[in-house]
Amino acid sequence: MPAKDADYDYDLFTIGAGSGGVRASRVAAAYGARVAVTEEYRVGGTCVIRGCVPKKMLVYAAHFAEDLEDARHFGWEVGEPKFDWKTLRDNVLGDVDRLNGLYTQTLDNNKVEIFHQRATITGPHEITLANGEKKTAKHILIATGARPHVPECPGHTHGITSNEAFHLDAIPKRVLIAGAGYIANEFAGIFHQFGAHVTLINRSDQILRGYDESVRDRLLQISLAKGMEFRFNANFEKIVKQEDGSLVVHMSNHEPIEVDLVLFATGRVPNIEGLGLEDVGVKLNAKGAIAVDENARTSVPSIYAVGDVTDRVQLTPVAIREGQAFADRVFGGKEASVDYSCIASAVFSHPPLAGVGLTEAQATEQFGTCKVYTSDFRSMKNVLAQRNERSLYKMICHAETDKVLGIHMIGADTPELIQVAAIAVKAGLTKADFDATVAVHPTMSEELVLMK
């Protein structure tokens, strides 16, 4: 247990009570540290309050649209389905309230003091709260996360971000989504399944940059077949609100489009404004994020940062790992670090896709050549439901050693499958190890050990 420093009010003062900040604070407190957290909004952070958790609930709801349609092929008579957005919205927000309470309870149980207000760093060991009160701490941890980026163009205030999407009064009939990353494609699937006509625009000619080309191309094909529209090489010029409340979006290289809602999903930027970083000498990197070393320490030795505010890997589990490692090192006396290699990720699009390790392009660039195995199939469920939607599994292997370098998938339940597949890739297994594993039949996952 670390010795408490009487020169300071706290051993640790954390700014931001999201996934990374909460984990670091409660672990540090468990080691015996005196810890305080300040949070201007709600305890839980982006993921729990206005991100992956409520979004996943909307994804579950969206899947019922096709499930109910398919049910008749499986002998079920379900009548005419009726969807009520407000019921879903309120139930989701109610669960967010529950989670907010649980995260707050976790901090309380670990005797972490919570301040519900903004804070500014006014010295290497000093924090000034919004009410003017000053606090001192031996260590300061910045875990303020990131926020949605909003493009600068005339009329941009008429659009919303994913933050506001969870609070809509109704599902719009026509939705334009700006961006082609995971948030854009996830909300495209959600709004489409809820009955909206969806158009995605993107400034480049690709979706889901960074994912394997085969699986993202398959998602594009499926999305187009479902009736979604895509406009590529399109930059915002202006958004004009009409008298009836509809919006006319003007963009480069395409004709204007009239919609009822514009959702910006054009990336996220670190929350650094108003923290006083420049006054205490905390340096930023080229992306405008807080620069940290391998131990999450900033250019000021007493100040650390974890999570999206550092813009290393913007994933909730990564922020949690960083918060844990920070607390273990600084307050637990352990040699703890975060391994950023081979991190699996998923896109909860419709259908979802997931991947871990190197893409085919990355493997070719790194090793010159590689072996590629695939399974392109229609699931049993889609066969009986008379849906032509096909899944695609892909395995990238080293040409000489046969080591599995990456696995990439699109189809039902692939986010669940990739977690187990990631263990195999991280462990350095070979294609022969997969081939030697007896399949579980009949499943979709058996294709992982049957790829040719």
UniProtKB/TrEMBL annotation:
Required cofactor(s): FAD
GO cellular component annotations of the record: cytosol
Domain FAD/NAD(P)-binding: 11-323
SUPFAM superfamilies, per database record: FAD/NAD(P)-binding domain, FAD/NAD-linked reductases, dimerisation (C-terminal) domain
GO biological process: cell redox homeostasis; cellular response to oxidative stress; glutathione metabolic process
InterPro entries according to UniProt: FAD/NAD-bd_sf, FAD/NAD-binding_dom, FAD/NAD-linked_Rdtase_dimer_sf, GSHR, GSHR/TRXR-like, Pyr_nuc-diS_OxRdtase, Pyr_nucl-diS_OxRdtase_dimer, Pyr_OxRdtase_I_AS
Active site: H441
Positions that bind NAD(+): G179, A180, G181, Y182, I183, A184, N185, E186, G267
Residue span, Pyridine nucleotide-disulphide oxidoreductase dimerisation domain: 343-450
Keywords: Disulfide bond, FAD, Flavoprotein, NAD, NADP, Nucleotide-binding, Oxidoreductase, Redox-active center
Domain of life of the organism encoding this protein: Bacteria
Entry keyword annotation includes Zinc: no
Cofactor note: Binds 1 FAD per subunit.
Positions bound to FAD: K56, D308
Disulphide connectivity of cysteines: C47-C52
Enzyme Commission number(s) of this protein: 1.8.1.7
GO molecular function: flavin adenine dinucleotide binding; glutathione-disulfide reductase (NADPH) activity; NADP binding
PROSITE patterns: PYRIDINE_REDOX_1
Reactions it catalyzes: 2 glutathione + NADP(+) = glutathione disulfide + NADPH + H(+)
Keyword Lyase (UniProt): no
Quaternary context: Homodimer.
Function: Catalyzes the reduction of glutathione disulfide (GSSG) to reduced glutathione (GSH).
Membership in a protein family: Belongs to the class-I pyridine nucleotide-disulfide oxidoreductase family.
Record protein name field: Glutathione reductase
